[in-house]
Amino acid sequence: MQIAVTFRHMESSDAIRNYVEDKLSRVKKYIDEPIDAQVVLSIQKKINHRAEVTMVAKGLTMKSTESKEDMYAAIDLMVDKIERQLKRHKDKLKRHKGDSGIRRQLGKTVFSAASVDAENEAPEIIRSHSFSVKPMSVEEAVLQMDLLDKEFLAFTDDNTAEMHVVYRRKDGNYGLIVPQGS
């Protein structure tokens, strides 16, 4: 397990770093190696201790952020949350069949909006990102979207090998966008 700990607005501490590494080693039982964890520990307004982790393992990305008055308590809550997410994911995977499709590469581009005063300006690309899209069921896609705390997720349907988008509706339910064939 690769763990990178970053301290923001606070002094670096080996005791806290070792505590984070010991706590995060508990998640190994839920997912196979390799696991890459990025941990950011920070203090906001001198009283709010914040622990944030982003973990990537076998194409699965999970995030957890917790804040408390004590850094150790924030770390404990953060690790407990990641552990619950991984346990729930592992249980769902047991109920679903395995990876049986073609992975696709998907690109994401962010454009800047032209100002109101400017006329006929082409949008400017601010950021571009490409990522692998693995085949999964709709239920797996909803779980992955919840783990990432995103509003939508593009994925390849494991039955039809078509690109679909699942999204979170304002009423708390989920929506599914399925492309129509020509």
Q: What key attributes describe this structure?
A:
single chain, 182 residues, alpha+beta, Double Stranded RNA Binding Domain, SHC Adaptor Protein, 2 domains, four-stranded mixed beta sheet, 3 helices, 10 strands, 26% helix, globular
Q: Can you describe this structure?
A:
This protein has 182 residues and is of the alpha+beta class. The chain folds into two domains: 2-75, Ribosome hibernation promotion factor-like (Double Stranded RNA Binding Domain), CATH 3.30.160.100; 104-177, SHC Adaptor Protein. The chain has helices at residues 14-24, 71-95, 138-148, and strands at 2-8, 35-44, 48-57, 60-68, 104-112, 124-133, 135-136, 152-157, 163-168, 174-177. The strands form three sheets. The chain has a four-stranded mixed β-sheet with strand order 1-2-3-4. It has a four-stranded mixed β-sheet with strand order 7-8-9-10. It has a two-stranded antiparallel ribbon with strand order 5-6. Strand 7 (135-136), helix 3 and strand 8 (152-157) form a beta-alpha-beta unit. The radius of gyration is 20 Å and the shape is globular.
Distance between the termini: 46 Å
Q: Spell the H/E element sequence.
A: EHEEEHEEEHEEE
Q: According to CATH, what is the topology of the largest domain? A: Double Stranded RNA Binding Domain
Tally of contiguous helical segments: 3
Which geometry do the CA atoms define?
A: globular
Provide the CATH architecture of the largest domain: 2-Layer Sandwich
Q: Sheet with the most strands?
A: 4 strands, mixed
The main sheet orders its strands as 1-2-3-4
CATH superfamily of the largest domain: Ribosome hibernation promotion factor-like
